[in-house]
Amino acid sequence: MTWLVEKKRTWAEWVVLRTLQVGPVPTHLAIIMDGNRRYARRQHQDTLTGHTQGFHKLAEMLSWCRDLGITHVTAYAFSIANFKRSKQEVDGLMELATEKFEELLKEQEKMDKHGVRVRVVGDLSLLPARTKQLAAQVTLATRNNTRCCLTLALAYSSRQEMTAAMEAMVEGVGQGHLLPSDISEELLEECLYTSSVKDPELVLRTSGEVRLSDFLLWQSGFSCLYFTEALWPDMTIWHLFGAIFYYQRHHHTLVAARQECLTQRQNAVEERDVDCCRAQHGDNVTQDHITEYTAARTARIAAFIDNLTHRRLTFLQELACSGDE
Length: 325
Ligand code: FPP
Ligand code: MG
Description:
With 325 residues, this protein is α/β, with parallel strands linked by helices. It has one domain: Decaprenyl diphosphate synthase-like (Undecaprenyl pyrophosphate synthetase), CATH 3.40.1180.10. Helix content is 56%, strand content 11%. The chain has a 6-stranded parallel sheet with strand order 3-4-2-1-5-6, sandwiched between helices. Helix 7 packs across helix 8. It starts with 10 loop residues before the first helix and ends with a helix. The structure holds farnesyl diphosphate and magnesium ion. Farnesyl diphosphate (FPP) binds next to helix 2, helix 3, strand 2, helix 4 and strand 4.
């Protein structure tokens, strides 16, 4: 078993776990797994051993999340900036990912039984041929599982993700599928790689670094940020408990801030619809005009998003079959 760790919790762990579950527990946890190389150095091991330990910790973390009721985990496995590391380290990490994806496909029956979905997001075109093929296969093979979802950010950066979303919208306008006035925060969000999953309530970074390093910048605007000194391979369930407890202490203000943002966003869209109707009908604009305009805009955007989703799925399907001929 590599991806699914089934280890019994101790009595003390269950007590704390059940106590924390009385309060709000995030449904989506995002993780910046940092400190693998420092861990390896400290253990007098090579860098790749540190990353391999990091993978095992991720699998363990998933089992803790399952027990706590955290249904979505997004992990920063490899940033676009990480390509600047030595060839030996980059190749080693890509081989590790390739090997783990192969193992996952062999364990698929178990993944299905536990309802675990794994999807890989990022600029997959930057990955080596075999790694991206397997990343696509894993994403497709588990896409109907719904009990818990692991999103692996691989060759990922937020700026690239946002740029790709903007390119998709510009193309939509250029091809006449969207109007320039359709562009909104909500639409941009729907064009992100992560659109099908709601934003993380909690972002955790290990190893004492206190920055987001281009990870989920859009999605974490209203998330609770938790930083721990522990190196990623040293993480224990107790560190996770600490993060959840911290989240619970700030939950009230986090929810209020997020709600305020959503209300403002909704108001902005409604005002925009009225402005667009005014541009068409002048001062004679009626509620019927607005209702009709809003319905047409909603349908236009839904068709655009359907098409984008379909194109991304086709891209994955082609990638999954690439190299098979
Ligand atoms: C950051 O620590 C960690 C990484 C850049 C890689 C993380 C990858 C894994 C845990 C494995 C992922 C597995 C799959 C299947 C994709 P660091 O190298 O920056 O360590 P340092 O901060 O001590 O230098
Ligand atoms: Mg680091």
